[in-house]
């Protein structure tokens, strides 16, 4: 694969003070692909996304080695606004919508980062297009436009968080646990939406604990363990591998726990 | 009754000026979570520029320069100190602003000396007679200008991209950064706007019936602190209501101080802080605030 295509993370090491959160992580998101990152709590998944978006300093962290580039341009060391302007936008874990602002204002806030970049003039034109696309994906946001975002349900908040990020017209969307805390039906809807966003030409880097869902969406997947890439490969292959089946899909655990009906595979996923 | 009405109008007018100062204070707190104790020095700087320049370039140009100057001082404080201070907590930055305040006020009062500087405003000591009520023209202008500025500010805060960026940052700075909002610019803008508002307030604190700008002007500016705090440090509505409460209370307590003689002379100056204390006892986050003051 060509180094000037898509997102390329090379030997990335990240520290929070003396604590190493990532060690020598390399990862690629080819243009137009959906790539999944799996791993348990504390594996470094969110740290990876923070490093890409340039927001490590909010957690008093920093990149100590390695490089991140997107479409051949260096992202590591760039300010968060510069990363957004280059088309890499993140939907943070826990949705983090602006709950005291209205749905409409949240979407406006999402569009603020896309205005700049190479073009000095404003492009209201593009913003209107982005807005149409978001409202077509999530019609409920149009219905609730004047409501306070904090009053939306969990699923609607996730839709708003994704819609807000799409307002910046990303070429690469970073999703941090988009189905966390959602009912299965809503999680399936979010998954469908991710497919649709990808079909419209946006690459996706999907961080998930719900491995079954992530592997069904992604073409490639990486498994992070204690800040290092433990496994990676085509998603279909990983879904077949014994280790992933046992540790992340809970299939081995189901066989072991077959005698105790209370311990269904779904319960093996903790989100403490 | 006439006295009461006159006092009320004067109180509202002064209160609107306090609200201008408090608004800047709240904007800085919302954008950067810094309690800006240097606010009175911004005000003094703005007033000082107007006082020094008006004889040579005329009042209106001097006022524009004063507003620009105070905005610049605010922006410089943000750019040179707040942005660069790599400290763990916002409470440390609040203490840094106390240092800045002492520096600026000391230098400015040294420049002013014992003088009382006129600001050269066109209203002078003219008095308007509305039926039986007499009000200084400056008070009417102050009220009109403050109302206009506050309305413009609130509209901008609600509808412009700048306002959306500001509110998003106030609510969740990290997520705002993820949306591509430049926190540095938001913070710089907040300090500059606060400086400009303070300069306008300086004008109206120093015109008739006040003799002019002197070293005591910062004490007048200090009354905007209780206004911001009793309204709730992170609420623009709170700043307005707080300003009016402080202004009216002060005017009433000063106006009726003969009836209140048992409280001692000069109760009007203490009144704002008294009201603040009482309100904080009942509502620790202020009237409209969402955050407790414990984080300051």
TrEMBL record, chain A:
Signal peptide coordinates: none
UniProt xrefs under Gene3D superfamilies: P-loop containing nucleotide triphosphate hydrolases (3.40.50.300)
SUPFAM superfamilies: P-loop containing nucleoside triphosphate hydrolases
Location of the ABC transporter domain: 7-251
Keywords on record: Amino-acid transport, ATP-binding, Nucleotide-binding, Transport
GO terms (BP aspect): L-amino acid transport
UniProt entry tagged with the keyword Transmembrane helix: no
Coiled-coil regions, chain positions: none
PANTHER family: HIGH-AFFINITY BRANCHED-CHAIN AMINO ACID TRANSPORT ATP-BINDING PROTEIN LIVF
Similarity comment: Belongs to the ABC transporter superfamily.
Protein name: Branched-chain amino acid transport system ATP-binding protein
Provenance organism: Thermocatellispora tengchongensis
TrEMBL record, chain B:
Source superkingdom: Bacteria
Mode of membrane association: Multi-pass membrane protein
One Pfam family linked to the record: BPD_transp_2
GO molecular function, one term: transmembrane transporter activity
BP-aspect Gene Ontology terms: amino acid transport
Residues spanning the membrane: 7-28, 58-81, 87-105, 140-157, 188-208, 228-248, 260-282
Keywords: Amino-acid transport, Cell membrane, Membrane, Transmembrane, Transmembrane helix, Transport
A GO CC annotation given for this chain: plasma membrane
Protein's cellular compartments: Cell membrane
Keyword flag Transferase: no
InterPro entries per record: ABC_transp_permease, BCAA_transport_permease
Similarity field: Belongs to the binding-protein-dependent transport system permease family. LivHM subfamily.
Protein name per the record: Branched-chain amino acid transport system permease protein
Species for this entry: Thermocatellispora tengchongensis
Native organism taxonomy: Bacteria, Bacillati, Actinomycetota, Actinomycetes, Streptosporangiales
């Amino acid at each position: 694969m060509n180094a000037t295509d898509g997102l390329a993370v090379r030997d990335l090491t990240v520290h929070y003070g003396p604590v190493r959160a990532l060690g020598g992580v390399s990862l690629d998101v080819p243009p137009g692909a959906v790539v999944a990152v799996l791993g348990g709590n504390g594996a470094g998944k969110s740290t990876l996304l923070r490093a890409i978006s340039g927001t490590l300093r909010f957690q008093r962290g920093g990149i100590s080695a390695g490089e991140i580039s997107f479409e051949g341009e260096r992202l590591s060391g760039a300010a968060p606004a510069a990363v957004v302007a280059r088309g890499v936008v993140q939907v943070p874990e826990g949705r983090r919508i602006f709950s005291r602002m209205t749905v409409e204002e949240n979407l406006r806030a999402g569009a603020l980062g896309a205005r700049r970049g190479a073009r000095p003039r404003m492009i209201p034109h593009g913003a209107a297009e982005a807005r149409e696309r978001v409202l077509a994906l999530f019609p409920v946001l149009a219905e609730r436009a004047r409501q306070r975002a904090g009053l939306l349900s969990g699923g609607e908040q996730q839709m708003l968080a994704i819609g807000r990020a799409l307002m910046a017209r990303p070429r690469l969307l970073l999703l941090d646990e988009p189905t966390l805390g959602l009912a299965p039906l809503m999680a399936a809807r979010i998954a469908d939406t991710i497919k649709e966003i990808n079909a419209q030409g946006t690459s996706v880097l999907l961080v998930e604990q719900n491995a079954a869902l992530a592997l069904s969406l992604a073409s490639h997947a990486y498994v992070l363990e204690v800040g290092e890439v433990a496994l990676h490969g085509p998603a279909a292959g990983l879904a077949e591998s014994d280790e992933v089946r046992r540790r992340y899909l809970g299939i081995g655990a189901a066989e072991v726990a077959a005698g105790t009906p209370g311990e269904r595979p779904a319960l093996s996923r903790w989100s403490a | 009754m006439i006295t009461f009405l006159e006092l009320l109008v004067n109180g509202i007018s002064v209160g609107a000026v306090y609200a201008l100062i408090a608004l800047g204070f709240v904007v800085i707190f919302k954008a950067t979570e810094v309690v800006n104790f240097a606010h009175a020095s911004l005000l003094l700087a703005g007033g000082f520029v107007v006082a020094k320049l008006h004889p040579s370039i005329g009042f209106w140009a001097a006022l524009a320069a004063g507003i620009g100057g105070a905005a610049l001082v605010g922006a410089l404080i943000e750019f040179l100190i707040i942005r660069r201070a790599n400290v763990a907590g916002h409470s440390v930055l609040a203490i840094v602003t106390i240092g800045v305040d002492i520096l600026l006020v000391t230098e400015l009062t040294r420049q002013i000396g014992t003088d009382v500087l006129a600001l050269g405003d066109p209203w002078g000591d003219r008095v308007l007679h509305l039926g039986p009520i007499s009000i200084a023209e400056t008070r009417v202008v102050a009220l009109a200008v403050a109302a206009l500025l506050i309305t413009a500010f609130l509209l901008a805060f609600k509808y412009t991209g700048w306002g959306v960026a500001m509110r998003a940052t106030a609510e969740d700075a990290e997520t705002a950064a993820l949306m591509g909002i430049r926190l540095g610019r938001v913070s710089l803008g907040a300090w500059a706007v606060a400086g400009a508002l303070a300069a306008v307030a300086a004008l109206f604190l120093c015109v008739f019936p006040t003799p002019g700008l002197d070293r005591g002007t910062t004490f007048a500016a200090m009354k905007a602190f209780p206004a911001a705090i009793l309204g709730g440090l992170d609420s623009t509505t709170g700043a307005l209501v707080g300003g009016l409460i402080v202004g009216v209370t002060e005017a009433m307590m000063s106006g009726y101080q003969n009836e209140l003689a048992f409280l001692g002379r000069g109760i009007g100056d203490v009144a704002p802080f008294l009201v603040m204390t009482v309100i904080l006892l009942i509502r620790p986050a202020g009237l409209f605030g969402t955050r407790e003051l414990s984080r300051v």
